Amino acid sequence: MQTLLQPAPRRETLGANVLFQIKDLLLSGRLMPGEQLSLRSTAEALGVSVMPVREAVYQLVADQALEVAPNRSVRVPTMTREQFKEITDIRLQIEGYAVEQATLKATPALILSLRSLNETLAREMDAPDNNKASIVMLNKEIHFSIYEAAAMPMLLKIIETLWLRIGPILNYDIRAGSERTQNKIAVNHHIKMIDALEQGIPAEARQALHNDIKGAFDYIYAKQFS
């Protein structure tokens, strides 16, 4: 896990940077359900004392993105099938609304950036020894670039909270090298979503997002909760 972290800059926002990096591990699915998070190892990887790491971790515990096990270790929560379905149902509504709002505000620069990210994602999926960590990060960056374009900070915070909880399981199919990854299913959904954003058609953008979310849900639900 140490190799996933970068030393935090030493400035007044040290605590915020530590929190940001741990959040990013969860949001991008680079920490898996049940995986323990060592405060000391994390602090060493970030080049900071244990104190800001402890503060960040316990903030995430309060947000239910992490949990304290009976032996007092900190770990990524596991998820039941009921929780996974509930969060997915909420995501369809919340993220669908965000995409609709982004469609009304999308700029040519955003469209260009999204297409570039999605093309990079497709190349990574085609690579013989594809970098699964990079694929996971690109997928997350595409989605959050769109949600940020909605220009609704409170809505973005709600989406982040949902992803903090679901992120560790969300990219199971990518990490498993599934047919969805091999066939670049997510890339195709993204193309349709970006096209709708460019054309200013909120309903089509929302439908493309729904297809993307539901496709991942169906695969993970069948593989992880069968």
TrEMBL record:
GO MF annotations, alphabetized: DNA binding; DNA-binding transcription factor activity
Superkingdom of the source species: Bacteria
Keywords assigned: DNA-binding, Transcription, Transcription regulation
Domain HTH gntR-type intervals: 12-79
Name of one Pfam family that matches: GntR
Keyword Electron transport carried by entry: no
Record InterPro entries: GntR_C, TF_FadR/GntR_C, Tscrpt_reg_HTH_GntR, WH-like_DNA-bd_sf, WH_DNA-bd_sf
Entry protein name: GntR family transcriptional regulator
